[in-house]
């Protein structure tokens, strides 16, 4: 009799535990932070992620998708209304619903959506919008893809989401008990800088990034007909792995290992990282990327086995044109179009050459301007040398100065358009280092002084 009661107790306990687990909801927030046809990869990645979550039975009302949504119908797209993520892959655009489009895709809206602030969203965009309306039993999965810089993830037009603002929002969600556990996959150059030394380890949040705090991520999957890179090593790796995996058996850590391997190919090496509560990486993917009761292992509607590499070494100005760094995508795309331009008219070839020359000039001037700016800001050096500032890899410790410096520089030097030319953001580490050690007035005065001298700052 005692044994029977003991078995009955265990059965009832199991039922209670199942009810408790299934009472929570899954929420997914997907962000494509880039616009323009050359950034095709960003919106292709986000549509792939959207379909993957739908295929895995996440309720559509619990998926929020932010995308500028200009690539599928861009005049340069030879297949209108079409987005693919690998050559020969399925069209991901039909049924890819965007909840926030065009000018609604901003850091401010993103943070309100993430923290469940419905009224805040309405004030910003003038209408009701979906938010992560999560509670204490819920699991939240966030995936973001775009360009970035040290301490920033970029939204359309180089509007920065700063690492301090993102992490403050995450801490706010923890204080408000708005999730049980949360996972973030962030893909951009310098994406590790969004969490390194900032994301607490004790608030049940786990994040992976496509690179460490000081390096680029890399592109993949050049399409000769569309003349763009369709995806990224990190994004394609985790999504195609999710499409074919048994999510109830594969863990977050196992997927992280898959991604690390994919990001170490063809001589282009980035270092995906893990941050936050690393004990969470032992949990299965189903906790975050599927709705358990609806998910069926083997649902792989988007999966196409494809190698991320595209053949032998193929470079321009030291840039790998098979797997270029994400922030070099404009230069790599233009160079590759020119190399493969046998069927183009002489006029179109000359246009590509002119565009390439201009981008290389912008890259050169951005580097030389940064050196001059550092020299001007160190008129009172405070124990640091120019080399210290130009080569140091410090974390952001004076966020207000850094934000103000980026805003002033963008306003004073529109010719070095960091929204159009993400490679110019490689110099932002010097701004961080200056702000960490010099008075903010010295940094601002240096920006004012040096940008006045550079003709390219006025060349739009």
Could you outline the blueprint of secondary structure elements for this entry?
Blueprint: H1 2-23, E1 26-32, H2 40-55, E2 63-66, H3 107-114, H4 118-125, E3 139-145, E4 148-149, E5 152-155, E6 159-162, H5 163-175, E7 181-187, E8 205-209, E9 219-223, E10 228-232, H6 233-244, H7 252-262, E11 264-265, E12 268-269, E13 273-276, H8 286-289, E14 315-316, E15 319-320, H9 329-339, H10 346-377, H11 386-391, H12 399-412, H13 428-437, H14 440-453
Parallel strand pairs: 1-2, 1-3, 3-7, 7-8
Antiparallel strand pairs: 4-5, 5-6, 8-13, 9-10, 11-12, 14-15
3D architecture notes:
Residues 351-448 form the Legumain prodomain domain. Residues 1-23 form the signal peptide. It comes from Aplysia californica (California sea hare). Keywords: Signal. The protein is of the alpha/beta class and 460 residues long. The chain has 14 helices and 15 strands. The strands form 5 sheets. It has a 6-stranded mixed sheet with strand order 2-1-3-7-8-13, sandwiched between helices. Strands 4-5-6 form a 3-stranded antiparallel sheet. The chain has a two-stranded antiparallel sheet with strand order 9-10. A hairpin with a 2-residue loop joins β4 and β5 (152-155). α10 (346-377) packs across α14 and α12 (399-412) packs across α13 (428-437). The protein is globular and about 65 Å long.
